[in-house]
Each structure stands twice: as structure tokens, then as C-alpha cells.
What we know:
By secondary structure, the chain is of the alpha/beta class. The protein has helices spanning 8-13, 76-93, 109-116, 126-139, 153-161, and strands spanning 3-4, 29-30, 40-47, 51-57, 63-70, 102-106, 142-146, 169-172. The protein has two domains: 1-33, no CATH class; 35-172, Ribonuclease H-like superfamily/Ribonuclease H (Nucleotidyltransferase, domain 5), CATH 3.30.420.10.
Amino acid sequence: YDELIVQESFWWICSNKCRFDTIKTKSSSLIWRPLPQGCTKFNVCGIANEEGAGVLRDMKGVARALFSGPISTNDADSAKAGTVFVALDLFLSMGSKINSYLIVETGSKMVYNWCLNKDMRPWSLQTAFSDIERKIELVGRIVFLMADQKGNEMASTLAVADINSGDMFKAWW
């Protein structure tokens, strides 16, 4: 099993001293490590009842933006894809054109595969992915990653906490 050695509550207090290294023991453990220079990362999460959330962190691990709320979809997979769109839209709204690249990390293997391979996308989501691709072009360089088992914990918590709120909440600083 994966064990988180550095608790997120400690990370908020002292993020510059937390690192993400894999330690080889009886079980592999994860610790937070800063992103490459000039990079920002959005952790996104969509859940079964069409809610979504995301957290944008800079290379120091400091949260710079978040969103949480309903994603207008018919099913959970569409909600998960919708979180990618909302993350890109929020990033562009911030005017944060960066010199390096944006990482979008999702906990859904299906959405990860859809983002990388157009042939795997369901016909019903072609319009949504056309919108996502337009946003990707505006962002510039972007990398999609598959989150570790507990890698999107904050985004998941935001999505669950926002169930039945009815409104999308977006904030950046």
C-alpha cells in the first residue's frame, strides 16, 4: 500500500522543507517534491454525481488557485473530462502564461487516456474535447499525468465537499 509520509497539514505549514522522494522499504512511500523550475500543476478530480474540483500549485507546492462545483454532464466520465476543461479555463483566466509548461494531473485513467489519444475518446465527448484542445493551444506547452493513488486528495475533498451546492466556485491569488 502507499503510505503518505508527509501529511498535507504539515505541507501547508512548511512546504519548502517537504520533498517528494520514493523510499524503498517493504512498501513504497511517497513524499512531496517540488515541480521543475517554471512549472505549475493542476490536480483535477471528477466524481460520480457530476461534481468536479481542482487545485493549481506552483513549483514550490503553494496553492495558487482552486475550483469546485457542478460540471454540466450526463455521467461521471464526462464530469472527469469536464474538470480538465475548467482547469484550463481557470488557468487562462489568471493570465498565467508561463515559460515552461502546465501539468494537468488526473486521477482517472480513462480521462488520462482520452487526453493523450484522440482515437479512444467516446463519440459523445468529441465536442467537449474540441473545446479542451482549443484551450490547450492557448495554454501552450502542457503535460498530462496520471495521479498516484492518493495524489489528488485535496481535489477529491473539494469535489465531495461541494456536492449539491449548485454553483461553481473559482478562486485564484
